[in-house]
Amino acid sequence: MVLRRNKRSNGSRILLLAIAMVIVLVNCRPNSPRQGWSKRWGPIVPHESFPGDCGICHVPDRWDVLREDFAFDHDAQTGYPLEGAHAQAACLRCHNDRGPVQVYVMRGCGGCHPDPHTATLGLDCQKCHDQMSWQPTGLIAEHAQTRFPLSGAHVAAPCESCHTGATAGQFRGAPTECDLCHQADLARATVPDHATNGWITNCDRCHMPVAWERAYIAHDFFPLVGGHAGLDCMQCHTSGTLGSIPSDCYSCHATDYQQAPEHVALAFPTECAECHAITAWTPATYQHAAFALTGGHAGLACAECHTSGTLGTIPSDCYSCHADDYQQAPDHVTQSFPTTCEQCHNTSAWLPAAYEHTTFPLTGGHAGLDCTQCHTSGTFGPIPSNCYSCHATDYQQAPDHAILAFPQTCEQCHSTSAWLPATFDHPFPLTGDHNVLCTQCHTSGSTSTFTCLTCHEHNQSDTDEDHDEVSGYIYNSQACYQCHPSG
C-alpha cells in the first residue's frame, strides 16, 4: 500500500471526519490489535510530522502492520501518561485526521467522550468515572449524602432501575419507599399472601436490603430459635393469616405426641418442654428427680417400671421392681437374704454383687467363698468370728494339735491367705537337729512342758560333778534350758 493523500470532495471528507469522531468518542478500547489499523476508523493520520525512517514503526512488507517490537514511551515523548483503559487504546483512536490531539486533550474527558447526561451533571466527569472503565465509581459515597444511602443489593442495582431518567441526567424525585419500587415483588408474594394480610407497605419490617428472600421478622412473643428457626410461616400459621396463635408446644405438636411411644398409653403430660428441647424433638430428656436414672436404669422405657399404665409415683426401693431377681438368685430365699438389694448390688448392673462384710473382712482364703460355707445355719445372722468356730475340724485333723492341746487361737500360726504353711514364733530356735515334731520334745502332752533329756542322754553323777560349782544347779530338763537356751 502506497501512502497518498485522499482527493475527495469536502463533503465526503467532512462525512468521514464525523464518522471517525463518533467512533473515537464512543469507546477507547481497541477492536483491532493496538499496533494496527482498521479502515473503519477513517483516514490514516497525516504523517507530515513523523520521522522519515518508516522502518521505525512499520514492518518491511506491510504498511498496515506495525512492528511487534514497536514501543513508544508516551509519557516521556509527549508529557501525557496513558493510564487505565487509555493505556490499551489503539493509537489512531486519538491520533487521526480530525485535528491536533492536543486540542481535544485540553477539553478534558469531553474532548473525546460525548456527554450522555447533556451537561445536566456538570463537566467534571471524573466525579463519577475513572480511567479504568466508563462504568461510574464512587457513587455509593455520593449517594450516602442523599436521603437514601445505598446498601445491600441496592449497591449493585443499575441507576436507571430506580432513576428512570438517568440516561438523560435526571436523578431527582426517585421514591424511597420500598413498595413503590417493588410492586412486582409484592404481587408475587403469595406464600404467605402479603395482600391478604395487608402487608403492602413498610417492607423493611421483614425484608433487608441484602436480599429480598429469607425475610425476617422480630418474632418477640415466641423466639424462633433451634428447630423453629428457618421454618416457613405457614407451617405454624396454618389459617392463612399471621394472627396470634397459641405458643404452647402441644398446640403444634399434638400429632408428634400421639405418635410417640407410650405418651398416650402412659398419659404423659402435654407439657412437652419438660422433656423436649426446641433444638430438636429427639433426643428427649426428663429430670427424673425422684429416682436418678443412672447405670442400668438409664435408657429404660418408662413402662418397664411404670407398669400401672400411668406415670404416677411408684416405690423407689429395689425390691419393688426386682422381686423376681431376688427369688431366682442363688441362696437369697433359703438364706433369708435381706431385701435391701443395694447392700450388695449397684445400679450399673445386677452382677457382680459385692457386700461390705464389715464384721469379718473377707480377705485371702476367705475371699470368694460361698456365703453358706460359713453361714451354715440357713440364715445370715451373726456368727462367731474366731477361727476355731469354723476350723475345728482342721484343728482336730492337724498333727499334734489335739494331742498337745495346742491353743485354739489359730491366728498365732496360721494366716487368712492359706491354712498352710503355718508359722509359730518358737522361743527356742528350731534349727538344725531341733527341727523335729513337737511331740519329740513335748512328751508330757502339753506344750508348756518339755524334756531335753530324751534326746540328750546324760549320766546324772557325771553331770552333777561337772556342775558342782554352779549355783542353783539341779538335774532336770527345765534347768538345762535355763542355762542352755540355744541348745
Summarize the structure in words:
The chain is an all-alpha fold and 487 residues long. 21% of the residues lie in helices and 1% in strands. It has helices spanning 10-26, 74-78, 91-94, 101-106, 139-143, 159-162, 178-181, 183-188, 249-259, 318-328, 387-397, 438-441, 460-466, 477-483; strands spanning 58-59, 62-66. It has a two-stranded antiparallel sheet with strand order 1-2. Strand 1 and strand 2 form a beta hairpin. The longest helix is centred in the N-terminal third of the chain and has 17 residues, at 10-26. The model is unreliable at 1-32 (pLDDT under 50).
Number of helical segments with 4 or more residues: 14
Helix content: 10-25%
Strand order of the largest sheet: 1-2
Average of the residue pLDDT scores: 81
Q: Which percent range describes the beta-strand content?
A: under 5%
- Separation, N- and C-terminal Cα atoms: 146 Å
Based on helices, strands and strand pairing, what is the structural class? mainly alpha
What are the secondary-structure elements, in order, as H or E?
HEEHHHHHHHHHHHHH
Q: Which blocks of ≥5 consecutive residues have pLDDT under 50?
A: 1-32
> Over the alpha carbons, how many angstroms does the gyration radius reach?
58 Å
List the helices and strands and how they pair.
Blueprint: H1 10-26, E1 58-59, E2 62-66, H2 74-78, H3 91-94, H4 101-106, H5 139-143, H6 159-162, H7 178-181, H8 183-188, H9 249-259, H10 318-328, H11 387-397, H12 438-441, H13 460-466, H14 477-483
Antiparallel strand pairs: 1-2
Task: Describe the structure using short key phrases.
mainly alpha; 487 residues; 1% strand; elongated; two-stranded antiparallel ribbon; 2 strands
